[in-house]
Automatic annotation (TrEMBL):
Taxonomic superkingdom: Eukaryota
One GO CC term, this protein: cytosol
One Pfam family it belongs to: Citrate_synt
Record-linked InterPro entries: Citrate_synth-like_lrg_a-sub, Citrate_synth-like_sm_a-sub, Citrate_synthase, Citrate_synthase_sf, Succinyl-CoA_synth-like
Signal sequence region: none
Protein name listed in UniProt: (Mediterranean fruit fly) hypothetical protein
GO molecular function, one term: ATP citrate synthase activity
Biological processes, Gene Ontology terms: acetyl-CoA biosynthetic process; fatty acid biosynthetic process
Source organism per UniProt: Ceratitis capitata
Length: 272
């Protein structure tokens, strides 16, 4: 079948002469001084024998055995044994209720109540992660008080009333009103804050800001009212504005908006 001697056990191995056989190769290695085992099974014993001879002759100095690194426990197995628990999927840095007492930005709830920080103080802790000065907390409370009621005509209040008259519960009624908040109801506050902030941060002169908005055909959010005007201002806005100017060390964004107001009201008194 085979025209030449074939050595099974290695892919494509063959011996065309006696010198190419495994026995001849092992013999040549022995004659060259190599340690050659009689078979693969005796390889370990030969290694141990050679190692012992090298240690005895002093060519190898044994070192202290280093313990192998500990193999980490499998997560599923450790969890099944109750050694670990899966971390929470949702975490918050606003408040901490893991201890014996609820914490607001690191302040115990008992201290929040004993110091009487008020709603403004709680807002400063939860929203800004620190205790803000009293005048800032007072500002928060004033904003909440002057916007607590907006009459029945706006879409948010209207939807809430309609749902309540339909027999829906309080949460459903309030949510139906909240869902109407957008560019035409409630969004002017967010929009004006965004526009004025971007203009101020870009060092855009108030006049350039007005001209740019006119050129782009965009309304300046927060500017203009159907009923109120510079001669008949909204008392709520007046109160908040005066409080900020009198109590805040600086109010660059408000002053920027007032400069814009001077430009727009020169064209029409209700553009304030």
């Amino acid at each position: 079948m085979f025209t030449s001697e074939v050595q099974f056990g290695h892919a494509g191995s063959c011996a065309n002469s006696d010198r190419e056989t495994a026995s001849a190769k092992n013999k040549a290695l022995r004659e060259a001084g190599a340690y050659v085992p009689d078979s693969f099974d005796s390889l370990g014993d030969l290694i141990q024998q050679v190692y012992a001879e090298l240690v005895k002759s002093g060519r190898i100095v044994p070192k202290e055995e280093v313990p192998p690194p500990t193999v980490p426990m499998d997560y599923s197995w450790a969890r099944e044994l109750g050694l670990i628990r899966k971390p929470a999927s949702f975490m918050t840095s606003i408040c901490d209720e893991r201890g014996q007492e609820l914490l607001y930005a690191g302040m115990p709830i008992s201290e929040v109540l004993s110091k009487d920080v008020g709603i403004g103080g709680v807002v400063s802790l939860l929203w800004f992660q620190r205790s803000l000065p009293p005048f800032v907390c007072k500002f928060f409370e004033m904003c909440l008080m002057v916007t607590a009621d907006h009459g029945p005509a706006v879409s948010g209040a209207h939807n809430t009333i309609v749902c309540a008259r339909a027999g829906k519960d309080l949460v459903s009624s309030v949510v139906s009103g909240l869902l109407t908040i957008g560019d035409r109801f409630g969004g002017a506050l967010d929009g004006s804050a965004r526009q004025f902030s971007e203009a101020y941060d870009s060092n855009l002169h108030p006049m350039d800001f007005v001209n740019q908005m006119r050129k782009e055909g965009r309304l300046i959010m927060g500017i203009g009212h159907r009923v109120k005007s510079i001669n008949n201002p909204d008392v709520r806005v007046k109160i908040i504005k005066e409080f900020v100017l009198e109590n805040f060390p600086s109010a660059p964004l408000l002053r920027y908006a007032l400069e814009v107001e001077k430009i727009t009201t020169s064209k029409k008194p209700n553009l304030f």
